[in-house]
Amino acid sequence: NADAAMYRAKEFGRDNFQFYAPEFNTRAHEKFVLQEELRNALAHSEFILLYQPQVDLRSGDVFAVEALLRWKHPTRGIVAPNTFIPTAEETGLIVPIGDWVLHEACRQNKAWQDAGLPPLTVCVNVSARQFREPNLIGRVVNALKDSGLEARYLELEVTESLIMQDVELAVATMNALQNLGVQISIDDFGTGYSSLSALKTFPVARLKIDKSFIKDLAVDENDQAVASAVISLGQNLHLRVIAEGVETDDQVAFLRKNNCDEMQGYHFSKPVSAQGIEKLLDGKRDG
Ligand code: C2E
Ligand code: MG
Ligand code: MG
Ligand code: MG
C-alpha cells in the first residue's frame, strides 16, 4: 500500500505526496511520534519489568520467571509491549531498550538471590533485531558482570521465526551464548517454520508451546495433537517443554497426563511486580 501510494505520489510530483497519500503519511507520522516518545521514555526511566512465574508441573515449584516489559506512560498508564515493540524493532530502538531489559532483569534476579529467595532463572525475550546485533554477546556479558548474576540463572527466549531467518548465524550466536553458560529457549514454538531436522542442531534447553495451542486445549483435538506432538518431540530431543498461556484446570490436567514438564500462565499467576514475586515465594516458603 505504501508502495502504491508512493508511486501515485511520484506520478503527480513530490509536492503532491501529502495530498495523494494521506493514509501512508499518517502512519509514518504516528510512527515518528512513537519513536520520539520511546526515546524519551528510555531517557526518563518509564520502562518497568513485570515477572511471570514458571512452574514445574510435577513438584509445583516456581523455578523461573519471565521478564515482561511494560511502559509506564505518564498519561496513558501502563502500555503493553505489543503496541510499541514493533516500532522499537523497526527503528532500532529495541537495541537500547532491550539492553535496559537485560540489565534490569539480571540486577533484579541477583537482588532476589541476595535477599535469600530460592535461586530462580530469569528469562528475557530477545527480538530479531537485538539477536542479529553484532555486539549481543558483549551486551550479555556486561549485564552479567554489572549485576554479578551467574550466567546459568539467565535464559534468553528467541522465536522460531527469528532462528529461521538465518539458521547458520543463529546457531553460531546460540553456541556463543551457551559457551557463556546462558540458557536458550524457543518461544512461541509451533507458530514458526523450523524444520524438525534443524531443531536437533539448535543448542536450546527448552521449547515453549505457543499459547494459541493451549487456549482451547481442553476441547480442540487439533490443539491436543499439536501440544502432545511438541511434548514428545521435546522428550525425544531431550529438551524441556513448557506450556504458556495456561489458564484452566482442564488445561493443567491435559498437560500433566501428557507429561509436559512445566507451565506458565494466569492459572498460577499473572505477570507481577518484583515485590509480587517476593510475596508469592515467601508465601510458598511459609506454607
Ligand atoms: P511472549 O514472550 O510470548 O510472552 C507471553 C505473553 O503471554 C505475555 O504477554 C504474557 O503476559 C501473556 N500471558 C501469560 N500468561 C497468559 C495467560 O494465561 N493467558 C493469556 N491470554 N496471556 C498470557 P505480554 O506481556 O503482553 O507480552 C507480549 C509479547 O511482547 C511477548 O510475548 C514478547 O514477544 C514481547 N515482549 C515482552 N517483553 C519483551 C521484552 O522485554 N523484549 C522483547 N524484545 N519483547 C518483549
Ligand atoms: Mg517469551
Ligand atoms: Mg510466547
Ligand atoms: Mg509472542
Automatic annotation (TrEMBL):
Stated name of the protein: PAS/PAC and GAF sensor-containing diguanylate cyclase/phosphodiesterase
Source species, domain of life: Bacteria
Ranges where the EAL domain occurs: 31-285
MF annotations from Gene Ontology: cyclic-guanylate-specific phosphodiesterase activity
One BP term from GO: cellular response to nitric oxide
